[in-house]
Design brief:
heterodimer, A: 684 residues, alpha/beta, seven-stranded mixed beta sheet, two-stranded antiparallel ribbon, 12 strands, disordered N terminus, B: 95 residues, mainly beta, 2 helices, 6 strands, globular
Chain lengths: 684, 95
């Protein structure tokens, strides 16, 4: 047995001879393996920062590819395939992986490296045997051999290699130990002429039933797993189990889970705060700079209001998005995400979701954008889609300025509902409304959406591991970057459209009138300089209000008045709501402009007074409690956020789902706001 | 020997006289070690369960239950899985 040359050793000899002829070769190497076996860590070690994250064409599965240069100077294109348990796919992710391995994907993979965690040898070998049966060039990578050595065990790689008839590399991806062997092994392989099974269809691929393979594998593992003859150290305590005794304890487990969620929730606000302020002041500086350097006019407005204003509204969320990726990445890599899913699964199931959907939804309370991006941790496509659909219903931080203004304006501070302050109760009610709406929509979506595969919840609880900081950094960096570029581009163009609608057509016929008014003020002898500038500012605001009313956006808002009427909105609220489809927080400042107040914020007492004191021609109040409640309900449910729609488009790789989200949320908001308006009027 | 024996678990067919002691996994207690006899034919994604090692003759340990008694954490070939009660009801085991 020992002097027979193994097939791969033969190929090694030929490859070294061919190696002398061609100075370097180019191979495409795919990393395959079960989830949580350290594939990404190995991928990062191989490619460094030389990697690109995108989606596989037409699907929402993340495609990570990068260039790697071996010490010998060979170029390898490394593709990190999505984690899979077998070649019989259960999800889109696994389908992508298995198509690449079988060779029916668009991309040709010359070599498949199957990564197996030493501790999970049997399960990994099942995948390996399947890969081996369909791909001519593959080898086995035994990762985390250190973990098995802690148990005074070792894997006889020579024996394993002989049995499997392929090279076996043992390494520790985390410390990059064994990476040289990995490259040396890659060197033995040659480029494949073409996809050998290009014309095959998926169902024709025959893999043996696991029931038949497992007995063989069990026998094999028993032969190659050997106790270390003289254990140096006594066996360590099972720290994993001890940690779980606490973190999955019936009482302490949920408490710890709540603490973790609370920590994430507050950190998303407090940690991102300084960065958001920094970006805000940076944007402010850019605007000021533009105002100072570019003469007043259309071009200045385009830069300041259109580009800086529009893209800026999205950019300020980037710290929160990056932080969310950091938390999700840490939870996922440390193994806690699955535990959280385990604890909360029963509750989430009540609305047709699974435990792991909880974290993206919680993140959505800060901002729906990172929440939607975080749904990537959900393995089931359908569950992921439903989570994406309901994430924008969670009360994000951008709704708070509108809530604060309206609650302060229309709900008396002294009023009580039972033992509760009416103001606080209303705010709580709005949060609850978002959650309940989300539950209902999830429930309905579960009934309506077709189920491709019957969803089974069979979730691995991986051992706790401290993530490697570099892997975590790459996770955050590349995701944030790709997020910013893809969603940012859409937002850039949509912001320009919205700016144009709010600017054109420009009505110039009133400009002389406003200019005359300004001249009059300047000539007033009774005013001192301060009074003059106050008066001129008022005229500027009136002009801005006039311009907005006569713009396309303003005219649409006015023309749509019959549509606003059932909700109790007049055209002013209509225009403000319409403009806030760009971003909710715009509502307050736009309302300020239409009410001729100029730029305002939610604390502005004058806007509050204006809203409270606005009168109809017959002397009654224009805006009543009913209007306010209707407006609040509308804001709680409507999808007034271009960024959210852009991100849904990115994450689902389709125009259909952002459209559906927009339509269902608009209908829901419109319907419930109308009901709120009329019911409140009945009782008042 | 005993400490790492779980890694070397061999497939052992249960003797036929155990047949009348077959029960579903749901009725097992925490801490109990059982042997899988069969997976319900109507079980969703039956093949996937097999691929993850839920095959006939494999030892399975009941580790713990989640706060509402569902899902259940089990250990099989040194891997921990969370499975729902409804699925566990389809797994026939012998104690």
């Amino acid at each position: 047995m020992s002097d027979t040359t193994l097939p791969f050793e033969k190929s090694r000899q030929t490859s070294t001879s061919s190696h002398t002829r061609t100075s370097s070769k180019k191979l495409t190497v795919a990393l395959a393996g079960n989830p949580n076996v350290g594939k990404s860590t190995l991928f990062n070690s191989l490619t460094g920062s030389n990697q690109k994250i995108a989606n596989f064409p037409g699907v929402t599965v993340e495609r990570k590819a990068g260039q790697s240069t071996s010490p010998e100077g060979h170029q390898y294109k490394i593709i990190d395939l999505p984690g899979t348990y077998s070649l019989k796919p259960q999800s889109t992710d696994e389908k992508i992986a298995s198509h690449h391995i079988i060779g029916i994907a668009d991309e040709k993979c010359d070599v498949i490296a199957v990564i197996v965690e030493a501790k999970q040898l049997a399960r990994g070998l099942l995948l390996f045997k399947q890969v081996q049966s369909v791909h001519p060039q593959c080898f086995l990578v035994l990762n985390m051999v250190d973990e098995i050595e802690k148990r005074n065990l070792s894997v006889d790689t020579t024996e394993l290699s002989k049995e499997l008839q392929v090279p076996v590399v043992s390494l520790i991806a985390k410390t990059e130990k064994g990476l040289d062997d990995f490259y040396k092994t890659l060197n033995q392989f040659e480029s494949l002429p073409q996809n050998s099974s290009k014309n095959l269809i998926e169902d024709e691929v025959h893999v043996r039933a696991p029931e038949l393979i497992f007995p063989e594998i069990d026998a094999l593992t028993a032969r190659v797993l050997k106790p270390i003859p003289k254990p140096r150290k006594p066996l360590p305590k099972n720290s994993n189990e001890n940690l779980d005794k606490f973190l999955l304890h019936p009482v302490f487990g949920p408490l710890a889970f709540i603490l973790v969620i609370y920590f994430i929730f507050t950190s998303l606000f407090t940690w991102s705060g300084p960065l958001v302020d920094l970006i805000d002041s940076g944007l402010g500086f850019l605007s000021d700079l533009t105002v100072a350097t570019i003469p007043e006019g259309l071009f200045q407005s385009l830069i300041v209001d259109g580009i800086i204003g529009g893209v800026g509204a999205f950019v300020v969320f980037v710290p929160q998005i990056a932080l969310t990726f950091l938390f999700i990445g840490f939870l996922e890599m440390s193994g806690y995400l699955a535990r959280g899913g385990f604890l909360i699964d029963r509750l989430m199931r009540a609305v047709g979701l699974e435990g792991r959907a909880f974290i993206p939804l919680i993140s959505s309370f800060a901002c729906a954008l990172p929440g939607i991006a975080a749904t990537r941790s959900l393995p089931n496509a359908r569950q992921r889609l439903i989570t994406i659909l309901i994430a924008p219903l969670m009360t994000c931080s951008a709704r708070l300025p509108v809530y604060t203004l309206l609650i302060a304006s229309f709900i008396p501070a002294s009023a009580h509902i039972g033992p509760f302050h009416a103001q606080g109760f209303t705010l709580f009610g709005l949060f609850a409304l978002g959650i309940v709406a989300g539950m209902v929509v999830s429930f309905v979506a579960n009934k309506l959406l077709p189920e491709a595969h019957q969803h089974q919840f069979l979730m691995e609880l991986p051992p706790y591991r401290l993530p490697k900081w570099r892997t975590l950094w790459f996770y955050v960096w590349f995701r944030t970057k790709s997020f910013l570029i893809t969603a940012g581009t859409t937002i850039f163009f949509l912001s320009l459209v919205l700016w144009a609608m709010a600017t054109f057509p420009r009505s110039t016929e009133m400009a002389p009138t406003f200019e005359n008014q300004r001249q009059e003020v300047l000539l007033q002898d009774t005013f001192n300089d301060d009074q003059k500038s106050v008066e001129i500012e008022k005229i500027d605001h009136r002009e801005a209000g006039y311009a907005l009313r006569h713009s396309a956006l303003g005219q649409i808002g006015i023309a749509m008045e019959p549509l606003w009427a059932p909700m109790g909105f007049d055209w002013k609220l209509g225009i403000a709501s319409l403009s806030s489809f760009a971003a909710r927080e715009v509502f307050v400042s736009t309302l300020g402009v239409v009410m001729n107040l100029g730029e305002t914020d939610e604390e502005s007492s004058s806007l509050r007074e204006l809203l409270q004191n606005a009168k109809n021609p017959d002397g009654t109040n224009t805006y009543t409690l009913a209007t306010a409640l209707s407006l609040l309900v509308f804001f709680a449910l409507a999808c007034q956020c271009l960024s959210t729609l852009a991100v849904i488009k990115k994450e689902t790789s389709s125009n259909k789902w952002p459209a559906i989200t927009f339509i269902y949320m608009s209908v829901l908001a419109y319907g419930l706001a109308t009901i709120t308006y009329h019911v409140t009027n009945l009782f008042l | 020997m005993k400490k790492w024996s779980f890694l070397m678990e061999k497939t052992v067919m249960a003797p036929s006289h155990y047949a009348d002691q077959n029960q579903s996994l749901v009725s097992m207690k925490i801490g109990q070690e059982v042997t899988i006899q069969e997976l319900g034919a109507s079980m969703a994604s039956r093949n996937r369960w097999c691929e993850l090692g839920f095959t006939k003759g494999t030892k399975l340990a009941m580790v713990r239950k989640a706060p509402f008694g569902d899902p259940i954490e089990v250990r099989i070939r040194d891997t921990h899985y969370a499975i729902r009660k409804s699925d566990a009801a389809q797994i026939i085991v012998t104690a």
